[in-house]
Design a protein that fits this description.
9-stranded mixed sheet, 461 residues, 42% helix, 3-stranded antiparallel sheet, Arc Repressor Mutant, subunit A, 16 strands, 19% strand
Length: 461
């Protein structure tokens, strides 16, 4: 049996105010402190559309290869829930902002049916004794991105969502922070294109993967037992890792859509759409291809460097200074990211500039220090925000390239391990790396690797 998945994603736009009023956006604000008569649905109030939200929605649609409609209509979606004070949501229905886009995932085209603007509802907070409601989120601008049922596995669903989030971050319209609810996913799952079920408001890739897998197996089991799969909306229970019925799946008739009487049609000029298109940055797939061709990097390295716009920019800034593309890529991926993970920091907060990275790599390339020394001093360099060249000079860390010091270290190591020397001479050539490591330890990582190799070969006969 074959699983088929379509996904609806609600992405919160990075505007300063809500979609139809001037209330600020701040997820850390105290409950019900960012509300006004408009977003609370008081009688006599009128919505005013946020221009920046429209621009961000258009930018998103263009980045997702959609056709932007020059005329779209806002509608009222009527339903009654404690966190929806108006009793309806302002969204777009039969005439959305954009449609017919796609994202390429593993060389397959995942079609995007539509991208439209809408306002968010509030947040219900359930306790053992009561349900509380925080209305701060009411009216927050969202784009809803809906795919066709083109996704064929839970792994592909996660890959699609990761690429979608990457694109939204690149163009600066959404943080994609799922834990804070800035990007929420609702997969629709069916088996053999039968009745579908929808899992609401998943806020992690792990939940998406497990939810789809569980629901697929549940539906398969039901079909094998000649049971009917009901068209329902489900919740995902994180603790039990099961889906649970929330309500019977509504149809468009249940929502009683009709055009929003307080908002005119959203009419766009083609020239304005093209102006927004011109603001799009180089997108991830294009950047990855360029890194492979321009810097001759392996595709996997290019993908890692291009995961975030800030990392790709950091890499290119360093390369422009030191002209060492492959060495810079290896250093960032193998060393810098590891130290950042240990320090629990991010590139946005990192004070070790691309210029310092370029300086450190130039010291390695010019034989001033070894790569091991660079790796060892990197955490301290980041902490002190100091010039690598100055640090190396002050600490006396310059590489030893010749003279008696390396030869004495080689002889000392060989005299300490006579059994290993004998085994090497009998053909255990793998021990050469062992001797090299011991000499490097003896010289505190300052010995030139080529000098160590030459002197070991000389002394081992």
């Amino acid at each position: 049996m074959k699983v088929t998945v379509g996904i609806e994603v609600h992405a919160q736009l990075l505007t300063q105010t809500k979609l139809f009023c001037s209330c600020k956006l701040d997820w850390q604000a105290s409950q019900n402190s960012l509300v006004c008569p408009v977003c609370m649905g008081m009688p006599g109030t009128l919505p005013v559309l946020n221009k920046r939200a429209v621009e961000f929605a258009i930018k998103s649609a263009l980045a997702l290869n959609c056709s932007v409609n020059t005329t779209s209509i806002f509608s009222r979606k009527n339903y009654f829930y404690p966190d929806l004070p108006k009793g309806y949501q302002i969204t777009q229905y039969d005439k959305p902002l954009a449609q017919n886009g796609f994202i390429i995932v593993n060389n397959r085209k995942i079609r995007i049916r539509r991208v439209h603007l809408e306002e968010d509802a509030g947040k219900s907070i359930h306790t053992d004794k009561e349900t509380l409601v925080d209305f701060n989120r009411c009216g927050v601008p969202l784009i809803e991105i809906v795919t066709e049922p083109d996704i064929e596995s839970s792994a592909e669903a996660v890959e699609y969502l990761m690429k979608l989030r990457q694109i939204l971050r690149y163009i600066g319209v959404c943080t994609g922070d799922m834990e804070k609810g800035n990007m929420r996913c609702e997969p629709n799952i069916s088996v053999n294109m039968g009745n579908r079920t929808e899992i609401k408001n998943l806020n992690s890739f792990k939940a998406v993967s497990k939810g789809i897998e569980y629901e697929f197996q549940r539906q398969v089991k039901a079909l094998e037992n000649n049971e009917q799969v009901t068209h329902v909306t489900l919740l995902w229970d994180e603790k039990e890792e099961v889906t649970k019925p929330m309500r019977t799946k509504e149809t468009s008739e249940d929502y009683r859509y009709f055009p929003e009487p307080d908002l005119p049609p959203l009419v766009l000029k083609e020239s304005r759409i093209e102006e927004i298109r011109a603001t799009l940055p180089e997108l991830p797939e294009t950047k990855i291809s360029r890194f492979v061709s321009q810097y001759e990097l392996p595709e996997q390295d290019a993908k890692i460097l291009c995961e975030e716009q800030v990392m790709a920019d950091y890499y290119e800034s360093a390369v422009k200074i030191c002209s060492l593309p492959k060495q810079t890529a290896n250093f960032i991926i193998s060393d810098l990211l590891a130290v950042m993970n240990t320090l629990q920091t991010s590139l946005e907060k990192l004070t070790f500039s691309p210029a310092y990275t370029a300086e450190l790599l130039s010291l390695i390339e010019n034989g001033v220090i070894t790569r091991k020394t660079a790796k060892d001093i990197l955490p301290e360099l980041i902490e002190k925000q100091e010039s690598p060249a100055k640090f190396v000079e002050t600490k006396g860390l310059k590489q030893i390239s010749g003279g008696d010091e390396i030869e004495n270290a080689v002889k000392k190591v060989l005299s300490q391990y006579p059994a290993e020397v004998e085994r090497y001479k009998q053909g255990k050539v793998q021990l050469f790396a062992f001797f090299t490591g011991k000499v490097m330890q003896e010289t505190k990582g300052k010995a030139n690797p080529q000098s160590i190799k030459d002197l070991l070969l000389k002394n081992l006969g």
